[in-house]
Write the structure tokens for this entry.
Amino acid sequence: MKTRITELFGIEHPIVQGGMHFVGLAEMAAAVSNAGGLGIITGLTQRTPDDLAKEIRRCREMTDKPFGVNLTFLPSINPPDYPGYIRAIIDNGVKIVETAGNNPQKYMADLKAAGVKVIHKCTSVRHSLKAEAVGCDAISVDGFECGGHPGEDDVPNFILLPRAAEELKIPFVASGGVANGKQLAAALALGAEGINMGTRFIATKEAPVHDNVKQAIVDASELDTRLVMRPLRNTERVLNNAAVQRLLEKEKALGPNLKFEDIIHEVGGVYPRIMQDGEMDAGAWSCGMVVGLIHDVPTCKELIEGIVAEAEEIIRGRLARFA
Ligand SMILES: Cc1cc2nc3c(=O)[nH]c(=O)nc-3n(C[C@H](O)[C@H](O)[C@H](O)COP(=O)(O)O)c2cc1C
């Protein structure tokens, strides 16, 4: 399947693995890239730019295919060393960066000078247009159903993707809520040139997370996610658990007076305990509504090839019959 996205990134299948905190390690990115998709290392999971440089080198030992690095620009009092992370990416020869949070305008000149392609992930048409204007090469259009941060506009992909198609000149992938070939075919029909998946990739054999996390995803239904931190305008879609229930009770009790410090136990530094130690109630962790469509733990190759085969079969078979 050739699209503007496979051409842009030099990959076989139009399937991207979005950056995921404490999931997007070298093992994850290499497995996706080796399967013909675009694997992405999550930059900020590495504590320092030096650690990121090591992770990039480790990934390169596991694959000779293209892979990228995610850089998430978070609102923060003590921001991470972003210029250092950008240096680590450029100096170690990575040619694809997925940015998220704020647009990457500040770093575009350096990234472009180094021949790096930038795919920016955002949840609205206006942010997509801004990213296009500052020189991004592609957009990951992230609908309201996505795991992680859906923004505050709450526009689901059935509307957001065709709206993006109306406005954007650069190619975009459909992100959020995608797990199978029916949805790849639908995404292409709506104007996207491929898909970006987060939650689905966690439930794969190669994902470097505790089996409890994979099992929790297989067990959950589409009704099991919750939105947290809305009062802080930092909305996150997470899998429901005891910590999330506690967090939501605090949000209800404190209303507009809620501060980040009030919920620090439920959201601060919980990822290693969940992803590595499998303590499933340790805190709130990002997860999409797409859990309802995830029933198995395949290899990345089985998953990606299965999705593409299903999409091709739908396009040639079911859809062709309607035309
Ligand atoms: C556990 C988890 C952690 C994530 N961490 C990040 C992150 O650090 N940076 C980022 O840009 N997106 C992050 N995301 C969002 C994904 O890259 C992707 O956009 C999203 O999962 C797509 O929605 P889906 O889960 O429905 O496929 C995370 C998602 C999950 C499920």
Notes: The CA atoms of residues 57 and 92 lie 8 Å apart. The pocket of flavin mononucleotide is lined by residues 18-21, 23, 42, 70, 72, 100, 121, 142, 146-148, 175-178, 196-200, 285-288, 290 (CB under 6 Å).
